[in-house]
């Protein structure tokens, strides 16, 4: 097989940022996907329908080359969200849903919910926000980690996701039986087991390409690799196996969401490295590589990247198609982008290495 044609894919989780960076990265997503959900952890975060509408306009301007591309934006679930504005913005389509960030647990999460208990304790504003999303029949995206256990003790980074699925998810689902939750960027066997037991039309999950391509050994290979540091952090091989097994099951509640998170090299390779792996330049090719190497580049791939995600969010999958061609290539350059009239900055695209011999080799190219 030298070509594989499939329905145009949908990106359920991408960080587009803003300004010059948005202009550099958004077209890469629009080249591949018919639509994408843009995360709201900007500075300041997107918290109102008005901000979301203006952000969508900026995304449209950045992706003008792809006029059919559809951008969707989430609201950032903060402790001071306006419940009425949230509800109206969900109904009029300015916001597609809301995103929960545990405070301090990831990039630009300072505005996140301080006390996760508020999400499942009736009478709180945060509880009402979730009710508003439920009433509008929209989705709550969850970053499924916590920094601290409910007793206040600090969690180890490798245990944060397991703890969330053991202690928080059941409480959330019990408190909001009609809510639709999308658990983002799963990384552990604990999360996989939870999804296999509870996944369905009201509980979905996204999986990134980088968590399907790597386990934590790669992050420590030859030294510490800032370009592979993301949150949730890469886990050990056995968790990778669980993720691959989940994806192989062709479940309707499992879909692609890259969590592509660009950071310029200055912030990545500095005294305190920001979390985020940038995969937008070859998102579909990375997923295709995973299926080609470990599963099968066939209907299961198409469902994962093109069907399950849109359906979970209430969209019809695209009736257009696109084609992957077997045409081995190597991730070939740093992404330079201008930051002002005379300055440039750069991002390390995932798979890039200064040493050309070490750059990632991919089998399929999207045409
Ligand atoms: O690795 C990550 N980077 N995880 C997140 O949750 C946020 C993201 C970012 O915005 O850089
Ligand atoms: Zn993210």
Task: Walk me through what this model shows.
This protein is an alpha/beta fold and 367 residues long. The chain has one domain (10-320): Alpha-Beta Barrel (TIM Barrel). The protein is 34% helix and 19% strand. The protein has helices spanning 19-32, 49-62, 83-91, 125-135, 160-175, 189-198, 209-213, 216-219, 237-248, 265-268, 283-294, 299-312; strands at residues 3-7, 10-14, 35-38, 70-76, 97-100, 139-142, 180-183, 203-207, 254-256, 321-330, 335-340, 343-347, 361-366. It has an eight-stranded parallel β-sheet. Helix 6 (189-198) links the parallel strand 7 and strand 8 (203-207). Helix 3 (83-91) runs parallel beside helix 4 (125-135) and helix 5 runs parallel beside helix 6 (189-198).
Q: If classified by CATH, what would the architecture be? A: Alpha-Beta Barrel
* Number of beta strands: 13
C-alpha-based Rg, rounded: 19 Å
Distance, first to last CA: 16 Å
Number of individual domains: 1
Specify the helix fraction band: 25-40%
Biggest pleated sheet: 8 strands, parallel
Shape estimate: globular
The helix/strand class is alpha/beta
CATH class: Alpha Beta
The CATH superfamily appears as Metal-dependent hydrolases
Mean pLDDT: 96
User: H/E order of the elements?
Assistant: EEHEHEHEHEHEHEHHHEHHHEEEE
Strand content: 15-25%
Attached small molecules = (4S)-2,6-dioxohexahydropyrimidine-4-carboxylic acid, zinc ion
CATH fold topology: TIM Barrel
Task: Please tally the helical runs, counting DSSP H or I stretches of 4 or more residues.
Answer: 12
Poorly predicted tracts of residues: none
Strands side by side in the biggest sheet: 2-3-4-5-6-7-8-9
């Amino acid at each position: 097989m030298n070509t594989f044609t499939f329905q145009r894919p949908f990106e359920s989780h991408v960080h587009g940022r803003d300004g010059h960076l948005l202009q550099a990265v958004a077209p890469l997503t629009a080249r591949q996907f018919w639509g994408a959900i843009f995360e709201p952890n900007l500075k300041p975060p997107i918290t109102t329908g008005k901000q979301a509408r203006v952000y969508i306009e900026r995304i449209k301007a950045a992706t003008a080359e792809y006029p059919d591309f559809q951008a969707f934006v989430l609201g950032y679930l903060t402790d001071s969200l306006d419940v009425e504005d949230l509800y109206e913005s969900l109904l009029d389509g300015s916001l597609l849903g809301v995103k929960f960030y545990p405070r301090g647990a990831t990039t630009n999460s300072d505005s996140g919910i301080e006390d996760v208990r508020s999400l499942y304790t009736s009478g709180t504003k945060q509880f009402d926000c979730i009710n508003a999303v439920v009433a509008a029949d929209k989705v709550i995206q969850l970053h499924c980690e916590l920094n601290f256990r409910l007793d206040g003790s600090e969690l180890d980074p490798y245990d944060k996701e397991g703890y969330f699925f053991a202690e928080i998810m059941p409480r959330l689902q019990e408190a909001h039986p009609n809510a639709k939750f999308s658990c983002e960027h799963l990384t552990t066997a604990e999360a996989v087991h939870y999804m296999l037991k509870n996944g369905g039309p009201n509980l979905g999950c996204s999986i990134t390409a980088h968590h399907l391509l790597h386990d934590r050994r790669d992050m420590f290979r030859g030294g510490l690799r800032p370009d592979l540091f993301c949150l949730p952090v890469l886990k050990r091989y056995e968790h990778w196996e669980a993720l691959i097994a989940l994806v192989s099951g062709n479940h309707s509640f499992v879909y692609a969401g890259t969590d592509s998170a660009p950071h310029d090299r200055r912030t990545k390779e500095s005294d305190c490295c920001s979390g985020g792996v940038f995969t937008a330049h070859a998102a579909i090719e990375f997923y295709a590589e995973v299926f080609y190497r470990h599963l099968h580049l066939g209907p299961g791939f198409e469902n994962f990247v093109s069907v399950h995600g849109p359906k979970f969010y209430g969209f019809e999958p695209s009736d257009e198609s696109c084609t992957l061609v077997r045409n081995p290539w190597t991730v070939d350059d740093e992404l330079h982008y201008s930051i002002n009239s005379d300055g440039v900055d750069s991002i390390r695209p995932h798979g890039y290495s200064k040493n050309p011999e070490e750059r990632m080799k991919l089998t399929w190219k999207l045409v």
